[in-house]
Design goal:
It is built from 10 helices and 16 strands. Helix 8 packs across helix 10. The protein is elongated, with a radius of gyration of 23 Å. The mean pLDDT is 97.
Amino acid sequence: MLKNIQQSIDNLYPEMVEIRRYLHQQPELSFQETETANYIANFYEKLGIPYQTKVGGNGIIATLKGGKPGKTVALRADFDALPIQDEKDVPYKSTVDGVMHACGHDGHTATLLTLAKVMKEYQEELPGTIEFLHQHAEEYAPGGAKPIVDSGAIDHVDAVFGTHLWATTPLGVLETSKDVFMAGADRFEIIIQGQGGHGAYPHETKDAIVLGSEVISQLQQVVSRRIDPLETAVVTVGIFEAGSAFNVIADQAKLVGTVRYLNSDIQEQVITEMEKVIKGICVTNDASYTFDYVKGYPPLVNHEKEAELVLEASKEVKEIQEAKEVVPVMGGEDFAYYTLKKPGAYFFTGANLDGNPYPHHHPKFDIDERALPIAAKTLIEAYYAYQNRND
């Protein structure tokens, strides 16, 4: 039957692309995805699959109960976009100024909706229950996954699987990990309060730009000189705002950035060492500061058995030439909350377009749409493999 399911997915490829391109033209930012949520709900309404809206916010979960007994497995897709201007020259370019699907979530949604349409036709022969989990707000912490988990919506689920269309991985390649797969992702904001003054009289001031520059420089040594080199961490300052005129010494400087880590102990060490750096520089120079550190998504840790299952299931998808384990990537993903709650695994489906892809979150980001049916086939193969597993 799985061969028939895969063929049915292939038969719906044009519709899958049509859905993806429609959503690409109608992007909505995190926590604002009301029209996208309505589109998803209406899709399930037409299919006659029961669904629940407003799960943990704008989330939607549709439930397809099979005609045969089995386990309950959630398959997840996210559907929010990013505050980026779409610079692609394509017919399906975003119609919303300053907002675009620059990470493939439109493709994730099209994949899951099409898979639901296919599986509705096989409902009587389906073992167990599929929960089609459409999640809002992956891109912006605190995200949509945590409130969905906190709502109890997956308490009854036995396992959860998800995939990300990965534009920098070749088409036909699947990547995953049996342990930590993606990093924890935090955000920080530092305000340095100095004493402004005339650019000609620096000795009468406490230059916030100089202090901010020193803080940035010293923060780079947190990882290189204070963290065990066998551990992994990143400290990046992405915003440095200060000054108002060429001849005025800045009174205040604002630094905003991110910390990435794989080990929660390292996260705490980084926070402690950052505070030491900031405090030391400011106290030495008679300046004051505030340090606001916001813990974001935890590391995404796959369960070993479920990751092995994905790797095995991928062998049944003829378009996948290679399925491999990879080292963790330092991007963040709130799928992490699902695998903290339930057994599960997350994997990348290669979607490299023309061998020269723009990275995720780039204004010209795009994907090879032939990856969509590959993702759908792998998800359903993993679903059946989980149903057939004896443990």
